[in-house]
Amino acid sequence: MGEFKVNDKDIVVPGEVLVTGMDYLPAGGAFRDNDEVVASQVGIVNLSGRLIKVVPLNWRYSPKRGDIVIGKVADISLSNWFVDFGYPNYGAIPLKDGSSDYIPRGADLTQYYSHGDYVVAQITKVSKSKQIDLTMKGPGLRKLSPGRIINVNPAKIPRIIGKQGSMVSMIKQMTDCKVIAGQNGFIWISGFEHNKEKVAVEAVIMVEKKAHIEGLTDQVKAFIEKELGGTKIDKKN
Amino acid sequence: MKRSWEGLKLIKRIDGRKFDELRPIEAETGVIPRADGSARFKIGNTEAIAAVYGPRGLYPKFLQSQEGAILRCYYNMMSFSGSGERVRPGPSRRSKEINLITEKALFPVLDLSEFPGSTVEVYIELLQTDAGTRCAGINAAAMALADAGFQMRDIVSAVSIGRIGNQIVADLNNEEEHHEQGSTDIPIAMLPRTGEISLFQMDGFIKQNEIQEVLKTAKKAIIQIAKVQQEALKLRYKK
Amino acid sequence: MKTITVTHVLASLEKDIRFDGRKFDEFRKIEVQYGISKKSAEGSARVKIGDTEVVAGVKMEIGKPFPDNPDEGTIMANVELLPLSSPDFETGPPDIKSIELARAVIDRGIRESKTLDFKKLCIKKGEKVWMIYIDAYSINDAGNLADAMGIAALAALQDAKFPKYDEKSERIVYDEKTKKKLDLSQLPIPVTVIKIKGKYLLDPSLEEEKAKEARLTITTVDNGDIVAFQKGGNGTLTEEDILKMVELSTKKGKEIRKLLKNEK
Fold it and tell me: Which one is predicted more confidently, B146 or A108?
């Protein structure tokens, strides 16, 4: 027979006791210490059946297989590109995964991606010592064209993308911009019209700041409408 | 050897505080946008800011550990932060000692196993000092680490417990540290939830039968400080 | 090899647009706070330009004057680009960037504007003079640290009050401050202008700084006289560039000076 010390949707901090007793299982930023479930990160309580989860409001990105990440080509060897995606170790793209096209041995790797290029890649392997392999083969994976790279809190990426991509799609559509969000917290934004691109950036940052608020989708929609005039007539800018 | 002022009873503290009363505290997080996590902690006139960067690359390679990220703390006093002459810029023996004890104070709560071969760096700057600086630094650093989203099994809270004459007091200020009746300074850092102690130092002396009172006074002060730190961490998200 | 962000900044500028929508000569919001370290510093200030934040403090000591100026006090400026303020700064002694900021932006402006009467800082000719130290630190780097440093140093000097000097013991009593201020006769304001593809931008953001061809930091005083120039960046400037940049800097300097006068 345990006792709740917090409510669903409360904001909790490391060391805060969530519930006593053995009835609940910790998840996310929570852990069990004997007969207490304790928060290990700043986050929001989410109660679901027997699970007491803390959804962290910020985390340090930890690469996982399958993650889509955005990074910059930092180094090139004879048979690998090395990508800096904000993690202590670079990700390696081996020759065979560099492109859907066949790349012959001995080819000049800089012809495909060179130093300073930003790419969107997918993680294929994370070894025990956190050596990371990436691939450029897959839908949407490519070298990025000129645009802005902004760095957001990686914990906010799910909210920025939205359920089944709903939030990011809305921003893209309303601002005529291309937006790609990497799980590592890097986001690429590129628009044809610069004032609309600025609004797209501001909308993304707004989601980052207010990720924990309900009704955010409507707020963001209203913000973009207000900034861009909302009508289809004014396309001259 | 009897000290000349032993047995002198402290009637009142210089600034009128009760013996277990802390100076006013201000705390906030997210004060340095470019950092991964940051915080400001002010107690009385002592003000510290801390920024966390990491995990990031650590070189030379031989310093890396496959068990997890290495924590490094850098404590510095701004040249205009001392109460007398200008503080000469650059590391000193004292600041290097404080780097080490700060690392030891924070390490026990952190789980850095997800980031082998890397480092997490905490930079602490003092803008103004009036005793209790290493503790203020630890308090700011702990908030900054939590702000950055590192996994921590508890926050870390620190306070300087003092002994003036025969009296155990909480949160010494500079005047008290140099009290004519002589004073002892005991910086202590604790995990508020479990009561575990991660920093325990002393400059001065105490009697055997005073240790318990020191720890009891510390625990009470730590709980108060932890509350302020926790509120500061939550405040960012309350709007 | 231009990065995609630099390429993008350049493309926007061709359309006469800055990333954050500012006009070319528009500064982000400037905030000045005085006395942020009242208990320890003789004078102190915090300056924010947008998200860029700098703190500065003044400490006064007494020492021997330089032999060729036996009746004049001294001033020394020190800048630290703290690793606290950016992932790009490292620990260690001040690097060339910090030294440039200290000497060319802060020190030169104060000295050449003659804002301080160094003779007034003399206590006993040839033996004792006041030595003024200004230390400025970056707290958050979001671009244009140069102007933030210059303004913060100036604000700290405005804020400064002499500590009590006990003539009998010949020592400074730091925790007793007098009401005597430093009496700045001028307010030398540095304003940095960067040049990109023939366009001049004030208050560059981080991305704009990376995209710049050249920069010129110009320090002007109340009557429009110029007291310091410092060019940076790998590109070159034409005569026309310099004239135009001076005009922009002087105009903006006047506005910022008003801000400092009003705040105090």
Answer: B146
Phi-psi region of C70 (alpha: psi -120 to 50; beta: other; left: phi over 0): alpha
By C-alpha distance, the chain B residue nearest A31 is B153
Domain spanning B25-235, CATH architecture: 2-Layer Sandwich (3.30)
Residue of chain A whose alpha carbon sits nearest to that of C5 = A148
Query: Into how many domains does chain A fold?
Result: 3
Q: Where are the beta strands (DSSP E) in chain C?
A: 30-34, 43-49, 52-63, 74-80, 122-124, 128-140, 161-166, 171-181, 189-196, 199-202, 214-220, 226-232
CATH number at residue C212: 3.30.230.70
Q: Give the structural domain span for C212.
A: 9-263
Tell me which residue range forms the domain holding A203.
148-228
Q: Is the pLDDT of residue B11 over 80?
A: no
Q: C51 in contact with A at a CB cutoff of 8 Å? A: no
Closest CA of chain C from A4, distance in Å:
39
Residue C170: the pLDDT is 87
Please count the structural domains in chain C.
1
Residues of B in contact with A205 (CB under 8 A): none
DSSP C115-126: -S-GGGGEEETT
Query: What global pTM score does this model have?
Result: 0.94
> pLDDT tier at C14 (50, 70, 90 boundaries)?
confident
Q: What is the ipTM of this complex?
A: 0.94
Q: B117 CB near a chain A CB, below 8 Å?
A: yes
Q: For the segment B138-164, what is each residue's pLDDT rounded down to a tens digit?
A: 999 999 999 999 999 999 999 999 998
